[in-house]
Known about the structure:
It is a single chain. The protein is mostly beta strands. It folds into 3 domains: 1-57 and 233-331, Immunoglobulin-like (Sandwich); 62-229, Jelly Rolls, CATH 2.60.120; 333-413, Sandwich (Immunoglobulin-like), CATH 2.60.40.3080. The protein contains no helices and 29 strands. The chain has strands at 38-41, 49-51, 62-68, 82-84, 88-89, 95-99, 103-107, 122-128, 136-145, 156-163, 173-176, 185-188, 200-209, 218-229, 235-243, 249-256, 261-269, 276-281, 290-295, 303-313, 318-320, 324-328, 334-342, 345-352, 356-364, 369-377, 380-387, 395-402, 405-412. The strands form 6 sheets. Strands 1, 17, 18, 20, 21 and 22 form a 6-stranded mixed β-sheet that branches. A hairpin with a 5-residue loop joins strand 15 and strand 16. It is elongated and about 105 Å long.
Amino acid sequence: xxxxxxxxxxxxxxxxxxxxxxxxxxxxxxxxxxxxxxxxxxxxxxxxxxxxxxxxxxxxxxxxxxxxxxxxxxxxxxxxxxxxxxxxxxxxxxxxxxxxxxxxxxxxxxxxxxxxxxxxxxxxxxxxxxxxxxxxxxxxxxxxxxxxxxxxxxxxxxxxxxxxxxxxxxxxxxxxxxxxxxxxxxxxxxxxxxxxxxxxxxxxxxxxxxxxxxxxxxxxxxxxxxxxxxxxxxxxxxxxxxxxxxxxxxxxxxxxxxxxxxxxxxxxxxxxxxxxxxxxxxxxxxxxxxxxxxxxxxxxxxxxxxxxxxxxxxxxxxxxxxxxxxxxxxxxxxxxxxxxxxxxxxxxxxxxxxxxxxxxxxxxxxxxxxxxxxxxxxxxxxxxxxxxxxxxxxxxxxxxxxxxxxxxxxxxx
Length: 413
């Protein structure tokens, strides 16, 4: 069943004093990070919980992520959000040069055997920019033998391509070299070459050498192009859960770069490890940044619930948010009944079952701490007033913390 997404123009919020504990990346599929569970206990009212995560995924836009044209240079060019190394020959190839300023060759050393010699190769490396990942789809290579000799034709007759992904153990592709560099050899890369968070190196081997009379043992490189998917990040920038008065949970999350999103999936768990899907949320406005979902089917009684959000891309890539833990409590010592703003002041009507000190926090919906003070609660109902001249019209969070428990309530000025 589809769920209509209502977009609110606000970010998330958090207990500012715990900000240092919030940034936690996660591991999901090919995306590597570290997960941190952020949890608080609460009284009977709404509690604000935050988990922050930044996790990359990708958009389906075919681009060139690396190119080496060998026009008097071994340096490569990049499509952005990644770097490329200069192409280089292994030390076992003793000499090399450019020919006509448009091709490059490695001379001598290429083996006569009909199997790859792993010490003789040309290599090139692609590295994603920090926070991004590579999603490679194909490599196009214009390669040939030397035209020297009588009749023309010398150097390797076979080529093979391998990568650092498996330690150069297996061939990705092989082919037969001729005297022409066109048409290009096109090598399709499988799913192992998607979502790469670190550098990858390719090695191109030449072998099965035969030199005609007077010919030179040369492997000639004209052009190499690596293509892939656009390296644009999709991210969960914030995620929080609120227990409402009517025994429902409201989940709010922020994302960036959802142009390739298929849907969000809401997952819930009783133990924090075994999650099950409770709803799919389809997004019709790809310009939206903040989303909300209400879980109205909570288990009865006190206890903990764990939530996470999974985003699923059109290309099948999955990204998980951090986990938010909500712990129901029968402790009803403090209640924030209502909040109002008049005459430049913010007043909260608070009920307390006993007396004692508490900490008061006023935060923006974006998590920015605006004001804090100590409060002395007394038994019964009381008004707590704080200056309101520091805030403009918008949504805010009023929080009281006592004995490790926290109760919060949103309000609009």
